[in-house]
Structures are given as structure tokens and as C-alpha cells.
Amino acid sequence: MNDFYHEAGHVVMAFLFKDIFQIDFVTLDIKKSKEYDNLSLGGLKGKIKKDVKSLTPVEHDSIILILFAGFCADNIFKLEPLTDEFYDPTCWSPKLGDIRYSGDIKKMNDYLILLLPNLRLKQPSYFSNCIKSLHLLFQNKQVWDAITLISETLYSKENNTLTSQEIDEIIKSSELPDWWKKNKDSFLDERLKLIKTSSNKISQKKKLTWWERILNSF
């Protein structure tokens, strides 16, 4: 079941950020996956709705969270002891080095390269922050129940595949949409604190905007 929870983590985060990510389907059927991408062995299939260059720093951060979500769902499913020590890079880095996460990491780096100049944190601290934020998010009952529901439904399917419509119906039948509506702004506000600039595109500005000056005063 571990692989199913892994993919369910990706799916739920992609659903929460559906304004920038379009879900096509999720599968653990290799034959089905290769119809989409000849090199793929399965997983969440979809696309970013915007050109990468037009994404804001917070949107880059959201995509990275989608890509980290499988790893974090695995941690909770395996009952990892999520103490402060876990968020030290020396603890999570060897786990993230597992070959099964290589595809997620490769995709993540494409967005991280563009995001790093706009971050208040260096890469290891930023990754630690992403992992901890997702763990805290997933430990909310409404979120984990949705992950479990996606995982179990995906497992029960004969071809281990869920279409975007099926995913939408499953999650909308849960308590997650209402919970996210109430908590989305506070979650994104916390993510915004990691960003140096409120620019509408990835860039480094020599002159601070009024919003950056406020953020830098924290």
C-alpha cells in the first residue's frame, strides 16, 4: 500500500493547487503510464497550467510542495518519528536519496533553480521547511482522510488508475474542500514568509517593494 499512499499524497496536493496544476490521471499501471510517457513507470500525470517563466515565487513553491508530497505521505504512512531531529538534513536527506524519489527530485530541481534566488532560506533549510509544512498539513484529519480515500480507491481499481474526474468526485465527497477553503489563506501566508519578493514573476530586484520591506521587518 505504500506506493498508493505516495501517489495519493501527490494527488491531494495537486488538487489543493488546482489553480496552477491540471490533473490528467494517476496510475500505478506501467502499461497505462507508458501511453502517456514512454519512460514513465507510473505516478501522477498532469501539467502546469502556466508557462514556467510566468509563475510567481509562491506558485513555484506550491509546485515543489506537490512534488514533495509523495515523500511526506510515505513518512506518515510508515509512522516515522517526526520529531525535531527528523527535520535536520542529515536525517531526511538519506531517505530522500532513495531511487524511488529520483523522478520527483529531478522535476523539483527545475523549479528550485528558479526559486532559490527569491528565498529567504538556503536549499537545505528550505527543504526541511517544505517537509515539515507538509507533515503538519497531512496530520490534519480532513487532509489525511482524503489521502487515505484516494489511496484505497486507487488500490481497489483493477487497473490501479484514477481519472481526473474520478479524483475530483472522490475528494469532493470528503471534508477536505470545505476545510481547505477555511485554511488555504493561512497556509499560503506561511509560505509567503519564505519569499523575498512579492513580484509577479521570478526575479531579483535591487530596489525593495513596499511589501518586501514589510516582510523584511518580521
What does this structure look like?
This is Peptidase M41 domain-containing protein. InterPro entries: Peptidase_M41-like. By secondary structure, the chain is mainly alpha-helical. The protein is built from ten helices and three strands; from the N terminus they run αβαβαααααβααα. A three-stranded antiparallel sheet has the order 2-1-3, with helices on both faces.
CATH class: Mainly Alpha
Secondary-structure-based class equals mainly alpha
The proportion of residues forming helix, as a percent range, comes to 55-70%
What's the total count of β strands? 3
Classify the beta-strand content into a percent band: 5-15%
Protein name: Peptidase M41 domain-containing protein
InterPro entries: Peptidase_M41-like
Outline the fold blueprint.
Elements: H1 2-16, E1 21-27, H2 30-36, E2 43-48, H3 57-77, H4 89-96, H5 102-115, H6 123-138, H7 141-156, E3 161-163, H8 164-172, H9 176-192, H10 210-216
Antiparallel strand pairs: 1-2, 1-3
